[in-house]
Amino acid sequence: MSEPLFLKPVFHNKIWGGRKLETAFDYNIPDGKIGECWAISGHPHGRSEVENGEFAGQYVDDLWKNHKELFGDPKGEVFPLLTKILDAEASLSVQVHPDNEYAEKHEHELGKTECWYIIDAEPGSYLIYGHNARNKQELDQMIESGDWDDLLRKVPVKTGDFFYVPSGTVHALNKGIIALETQQSSDTTYRLYDYDRVEKSTGKKRELHIKQSEDTITVPHHDPKLDIVTREDGKNKFTTFVQPPISPYFAVYRWQLKETAIFTHQIGAYTLISVIDGNGSINVDGNDYKLEKGIHLIVPATVSKWTIVGDLDIIASESGEK
Question: Which of 131, 135, 160, 305 is the 20 to 30 A CA-CA neighbour of 222?
């Protein structure tokens, strides 16, 4: 029987995290400052476990290796995508991620291109997104002198915004933001600046990665040109935020549903779904499965068509890699 794969989230304590994943999504999170919900993941630092059906108790990375038919018989060695929800009670470090070539050589994993859908942003919230250095020499000089105010671009942000963050982009979520992140399956982050914060466990400032950052930052910075398209069908709205060729690794969609909608896979063999608000159900092969805020699932390649009913706000994604 073909069925969706519902997944159990994995939570990570972060110096910048808070408790909103508990209050906003009703997750049973551990004690402490919980900054990240790894919602759909085959990465070894946070593996998603299937909660239902034939594959209950198995992990996404194991299914990728042993049940290729669920993903359309892909060629890649690792499940290529990672979906997170981030709670930035404090600002994240100013950081950059490497591309595939640099990451494979130095970190032995994928590079990290990512994007954010802003689930909630407090008034006055902003991102660090890009930099103002005109060339590599100016970039290195501004980093060395700590001229962060002139170097870093601050961009206002509000609920419902979308940002595409290719590898090589200087960036940071700042305090007061909850975001859903779709990214390549990588956990490599190079910290450029961290506000001189000290880890309580060590009493020392967090490690910076200046050389790696300088190696991988794109100079000069250019904002990606996105072609965001929204289509209405009755009371439903379907938005495509990004897709190949602009984003070679993934397509990301928002589905704002008020009435029944029928879906098929678009650019990929399987589809990742995260419910960010509302209630409803997904019907596959005549069987209904409950959907509610905070649920995450994969619709595998063995499902060719499915129906969603309810009042729901969903972020969905597909791999752009064949």
Answer: 160
Quick: pLDDT tens for 269-290: 999 999 999 999 999 999 999 9
Is residue 201 predicted with pLDDT exceeding 90?
no
**CA angle in degrees (0–180, nearest 5) for 135-182-54:** 150
CA distance to 124, 125, 183, 289, per residue, from 321 (Å): 37, 34, 13, 28
DSSP state string for 188-247: --EEEE-TT-B-TTTSSBPP--HHHHHHH--SS--------EEEEETTEEEEEEE-TTTS
Tokens of 59: 């992990």
Cα 17 to Cα 92: distance, rounded to the nearest angstrom? 9
Confidence of residue 322 (pLDDT cuts 50, 70, 90): low
Q: Output the 3-class SS for 63-124.
A: HHHHCHHHHCCCCCCCCCEEEEEEEECCCCCEEECCCHHHHHHHCCCCCCCEEEEEEEECCC
**CA gap 97, 85 in Å, rounded:** 18
Beta bridge partners of 282: 289, 308
d(CA 269, CA 115): 21
Active site residue 134: no
Which of 19, 153, 191, 206 does the annotation list as catalytic?
191
The full set of domains in the chain, from first to last, is 5-216 (2.60.120.10), 229-319 (2.60.120.10)
Residue 321, pLDDT score: 81
Q: Torsion-angle region of residue 52: left (phi > 0), alpha (psi -120 to 50) or beta? A: beta
pTM score of the predicted model: 0.97
Query: What Rg do the C-alpha atoms of the chain give, in angstroms?
Result: 20
Using CA atoms in the order 239, 244, 246, 251, what is the torsion angle rounded to 10 degrees?
A: 40
Identity of residue 262 = I
Handedness of CA 136, 140, 142, 146 (dihedral sign): positive
